[in-house]
């Protein structure tokens, strides 16, 4: 008996595709999340390729979600686990004392501090409204239309403020290198 959903053989998705995702993420729960997100995106897609080659199209969606996931997780440094804390990847195993889990050198810390101070100086030189828009967009994570509503300005002005801040930061980055 074949279980299909929107043209996808669900046995194939869970028996073949899911283990492949799990090997790439090294987490069973994360693999399930990616597969389920992919299935929802597949069902919502209006692409003609979806009907012609549903399995290939689902694999493409999964690949894109894995790339997005990798980009998201690469932005963060994992916190050092507490001594004696259970390891999620290996249930039953306890992590040893890890004082040197992430111990940056003094030079690295000084470099980071200088770069952050430089970025802060650049942001401080921006006009107040531009700085506020950039903060809401990049730090608070608000969508552009939400910022426009919140500040009572046009969407076009929100985009201009964001672009101005990004251009200033990019120019400063080029000077640093």
Keywords:
Arc Repressor Mutant, subunit A, 8 helices, flat, 177 residues, 68% helix, 2 strands, 2 domains
Quick rundown:
This protein has helices at residues 10-25, 28-44, 48-52, 54-74, 106-125, 128-139, 144-151, 155-176; strands spanning 4-5, 8-9. By secondary structure, it is mostly helical.
What layout of secondary structure does this protein have?
Elements: E1 4-5, E2 8-9, H1 10-25, H2 28-44, H3 48-52, H4 54-74, H5 106-125, H6 128-139, H7 144-151, H8 155-176
Helix share bin: 55-70%
Helix and strand run = EEHHHHHHHH
Biggest sheet: strands side by side, in what order?
1-2
In what range is the share of β-strand residues?
under 5%
> What's the end-to-end separation, in Å?
61 Å
How much is the average pLDDT?
80
What form results from the Cα inertia axes? Answer: flat
Tally of individual helices:
8
Task: List low-pLDDT spans.
Answer: 92-101
Derived from helix and strand composition plus strand pairing, the structural class reads mainly alpha
Largest sheet properties: 2 strands, antiparallel
Number of structurally distinct domains: 2
Question: How does this structure look, described?
Answer:
The protein is an all-alpha fold and 177 residues long. The chain has two domains: 4-74; 106-176, Winged helix-like DNA-binding domain superfamily/Winged helix DNA-binding domain (Arc Repressor Mutant, subunit A, Orthogonal Bundle). The protein is built from eight helices and two strands, in the order E-E-H-H-H-H-H-H-H-H. The protein has a two-stranded antiparallel ribbon with strand order 1-2. Strand 1 (4-5) and strand 2 form a beta hairpin. It is flat. The termini are far apart. Residues 92-101 have low confidence and may be disordered.
